[in-house]
Amino acid sequence: MHRFFVPQLYNETMTIEGVDARHISKVLRMQPGAQLQIVSDDGVSALAEISAIDSECVTVHCLEKLAESHEPAVRLILAQGLAKGEKMEFIIQKAVEMGAYSVVPVAMEHSVVRLDGAKAAKKVERWQKIAESAAKQSKRDIIPEVQPVQTMAQMLAANDCATKIIAYECEDKKSLKTALKEAQANALTDLLLIIGPEGGISEAELETARAAGAVPVSLGRRILRAETAGLVAISAIFYETGDLGD
Fold first, then answer.
1. What is the distance between the alpha carbons of residues 146 and 111, in angstroms, rounded to a whole number?
2. Three-class SS of residue 208?
3. What is the mean pLDDT of residues 134-152?
4. Among candidate residues 102, 203, 186, 198, the one with its CA nearest the CA of residue 152
């Protein structure tokens, strides 16, 4: 069943406007009486029925609230070193599908891509649309935020999670699994996952992360691509915390 995010507080009667209204009427060709799911601005998910429809506005009547949550127990923020081409789009789309709470594009020393000013803002706007589409497809209860492009220091200051993990290819003492077990012993509720770009994380960035409390971990004996590492780590984290099946 199709799910739409409605920027209104929950009410028995709600309206879906703009791009989503056009999608419902022109692409899905739904008619009055058809059912869909809505998520209101205050986080309420509900089953709703279309009562009136045109290309600019769809009015729905909410039939029942949906109690089941689609959000992971651990709030995971992915800090991803800027990757080139369409890799960032792929990473953001999949991270949102998998349950990431937020994604931070990080301008790192070894990033091939350089974004600033209007160009960075335009990219973030596009990435946010990708996140919204992925949230709808995967039936999330929130639209994860794609934060502005930041440096490592800015990102660490703005995302002070109790647990911080940085994947580092030269780390040979601590695995991701070990770090997660240590974090779970102290009631793991939020986690900042830092992943480097194609060129990897510099020594200076590693030390900056360490100073902020981030724990360097290994993701295994094989070197993973920038667009693979974060998704592998997210999968492992949600598996270990019980959010990938029973």
1. 18
2. helix
3. 94
4. 203
Q: Token pair for residue 217? A: 């971990």
Alpha-carbon separation of residue 200 from 159, 168, 174, 223, 227 (angstroms): 21, 8, 18, 10, 12
- Chain segment 230-243, per-residue pLDDT in tens: 999 999 999 999 88
Q: Tell me, what amino acid is at 75?
A: R
What are the angstrom distances between the C-alpha of 127 and each of 24, 70, 161? Answer: 22, 22, 23
Rounded to 5°, the CA angle 109-112-118 comes to 90
Cβ-based neighbour number of residue 38 at 10 Å: 22
- In the chain, DSSP assigns E strands to 3-6, 13-17, 35-40, 45-53, 57-65, 75-81, 102-106, 145-146, 163-167, 190-195, 215-217
Closest by CA position to 200, among listed 179, 231, 224, 165 = 224
Q: Which residues lie across from 61 on neighbouring strands?
A: 13, 49
- How far is residue 122's CA from residue 128's CA, in Å, rounded to a whole number? 10
Contact 74, 190 (CB under 8 A): yes
Q: Residue 20 is inside which H or E element, if any? A: helix 18-22
Give pTM, 2 decimals.
0.85
Residue 167's nearest CA partner among 151, 191, 190 is 191
pLDDT > 70? residue 5? yes
